[in-house]
Design a protein that fits this description.
Order of helices and strands: HHHHHH
Low-confidence stretches: none
Number of strands: 0
Number of helices: 6
Distance between the termini: 75 Å
Helix content: 40-55%
Mean pLDDT: 75
Radius of gyration: 43 Å
Strand content: under 5%
Largest sheet: none
Length: about 190
């Protein structure tokens, strides 16, 4: 019984301390400006783009009851002009040839670096690889450009690695290991 009273007293003390903290915050906090009512924004939903084009058929009305609303159309007093069919375009042969040349040039240059994006065929991919490999046998070797101090540091690091590997792969046992076959007795270490 004593334990439940202690728990109840602790809970009451926690509530009291929280109330005191809330009162202190309200008393210390500066007066905040009162917010005015939020302005009301009027939003007009426009009809879809396809139905606003000339000559486009109106979109079918959604089935619904009283709650469904349609976007307002043009007033009935304003009639739309009848759709006028554009005259048939005469194909410009020169423009088509230039477009084909540009397409081929882009597929050969950009397409070779990104064959999946350019959707190259197998023959186009093979031509790209052949063009990339042409002259590789006769091209002079160009070593990577590197500052001389960096090159020397790289060579020293390579020499250290090679010496370390040779040491690890050597057949001589490490210093201090008994090689007489007397068992796991360690030879005395040399004085430094």
């Amino acid at each position: 019984m004593g334990r439940s009273l202690r728990n109840l007293a602790a809970a009451g003390l926690a509530v009291l301390l929280h109330l005191l903290g809330l009162i202190a915050l309200i008393w210390v906090a500066p007066d905040l400006p009162r917010l005015r009512e939020a302005p009301i924004f009027e939003i007009i939903l426009a009809p879809p783009l396809a139905s606003t084009r000339l000559g486009a058929a109106p979109s079918p009305a959604r089935p619904g009851g009283e709650g469904s609303r349609q976007a307002p159309g043009p007033p009935p007093s304003i009639a739309r002009p009848p759709p006028v069919a554009p005259p048939p375009a005469v194909p410009d042969i020169e423009a088509q040839v230039q477009a084909a040349r540009l397409r081929a040039a882009l597929r050969q240059t950009f397409g070779c670096s990104q064959p999946d994006i350019a959707r190259l065929s197998e023959t186009e991919r093979a031509a790209c690889l052949a063009r990339f490999a042409s002259g590789a046998e006769t091209a002079p070797y160009r070593p990577p450009l590197m500052a001389s101090d960096k090159q020397q540091a790289l060579e020293r690091a390579g020499a250290r690695k090679a010496a370390d590997r040779a040491y690890r792969e050597s057949t001589t046992p490490p210093l201090g290991t008994d090689t007489t076959g007397g068992g796991p007795v360690m030879n005395p270490l040399p004085e430094l």
